[in-house]
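Chapter summary example: a protein plus uridine-5'-diphosphate.
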Amino acid sequence: MFEFTMVIKKQIRSLMCRGRKKKIASLVIILIFLINAMFYVSLELYNTIKNRNKDPWYKSLRYEKDYVDKMGMRVIVGHYVGGNSGGNLSQEMINTNHYAPIDGAGEGGRPVQLLQREIISARDLYSLHSYNIVVSDRISINRSLPDMRSESCRRVEYDLENLPTASVIIVFHNEAWSTLMRTVMSVLLRSPTVLLKEIILVDDASDRKYLGKELEDAIENLNNVKILRSHNRTGLVGARLMGARIAVGDVLLFLDAHCEVTQGWIEPLLERAGSDDVFICPHIDLLSDDTLAYTKSIDAHWGAFSWRLHFRWLMPSNEVMINKSKNPSKPYPTPAMAGGLFAVRKSLFWRLGGYDEGMVIWGAENLELSWRAWQCGARVEITPCSRVGHIFRRHSPYKYPGGVAKVLNSNLARAASVWMDEWADFFFKFNPSVAAIRDSQSVGDRIEIRKNLHCKNFKWYLENVWPQHFFPTDERWFGRIRNDKGGCIGVTAGTPGLGGPASSISCGSDLDLDRLLVYTVEGKVMADEGLCLEQGNGRAVWKTCTENIKQIWQQKGPRLKTLDGLCLTLVNGDSEDGIGDPLTAKRCLNDNRQIWHFERVPWR
Ligand code: UDP
Ligand code: MN
């Protein structure tokens, strides 16, 4: 910096010696230029540094509860806030296809980063699709992706001639052109032609202009790609059924319209689906909603659901983990599927009752299908050898006629009433707004299917398919655990499923699921989302339920004792009434902060 000033001074001195006015004028111009340049550079620098230290911009967008862990797939999807589909963007902007690939962008599944000034327009457009459309439009629809399979999966050999054939069904409502076409192209590029009978696109009443003739022109010259159009917005169930009805392949293979499949994805799905008793899902990887980078998701996950019936990814059971390590290329069972991506033999799909046509727009159909499959003699599995990227979105970009809550709740009410038996009563009791919708749903034909197929009950499902579940049962105590001083053991609002330090919270009413707990025979204190109270380092914490003995609290009179003889204690905090005070395990004393009242609440 010092040298730089010296040079400038020298320049000024030499200029002063020649024609004075001219020199001053040129000096002023140089100075203005220099100041401008420095201002611009420091602004870009400032913004870059500011953004490096901050969450990415899209994190500030409003979304409810759901959370995609960047490290993997810890907790995700299930409860959406409907989007505003573009807000105040111009019609011309919304209806035009802006696909303009840049050489090399996103190749190999790499992220595409925008410049600071481009981010501003990308942000405005984000709400259209709930992903970064500017980035998507820059990446070739034929982009390359790495082979995501593990070594052991690459070694598996398939007899292509003897595998069943597939009809790939992709339904969409107002999807971006580039994202949809990249889904189609990835399937065409990476599926052996002998296996791929057809790709059926089903347009669920999209109103974006570029999804009309422009889409038809794009698929015209592709082999075996068809398009069906629904004139009314039917929702994903109705649209998938339209596709399934005309499919000619042996296996129906459903994909969302914002996926990219990788090398070798279809063979393991078709091989397993051939056996006619299974709904088989690929291992779903993450396509970033911001950069479209392809990222591996955590190896060990399976699907289940919370007390509120929100779909969740969780750690599989120990048994599954052991089998996975012994045989890493083998498909493994999952209590539920995420719903967007799976394969099933066409005959099995129809034999088990297709989809529930009473389900509208979006949501709950994945749970209904999973329960039906398991309870009616089939299975739901994930094959680690088929790897497909999917853009997980933080909120749903579509319009939901009547509102997102009404749509989702009516679907949930249907699924619960048909399949969940006593646990349907539990669900309706603690979700009165869903219960209010229940009676308007006629599910007679679905109950008929359950009877005709002699399906097992939900108790069997919980005990056999998901014995690690955290729902109340008749064998488990259910209710509130209140401290003598005040306050109840409960999970403070936060990211569902991620846990954290435990404190007491206000005891609320009998219907507040946040302070209602399951207390198991072996001494686990369980909350919704599969969290267990654990003796932590200094402070008690909410952690995913495991076999850890630090999650055992034995009831000794009015006390809860750890296996090493400490008492659960409400720490003396700032509060008058005990609410908000931390929980910990301490030496047992004659102290009312160690006295707990078990207030039973009927769970159904
Ligand atoms: N979809 C549809 N009609 C609707 C809602 C959704 O055809 O009314 C399609 C959507 O375009 C997507 C699939 O159904 O291809 C699944 O929806 P989405 O991706 O929003 O669900 P998520 O993956 O977020 O659970
Ligand atoms: Mn999706």
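Key point: The CA atoms of residues 66 and 77 lie 5 Å apart.
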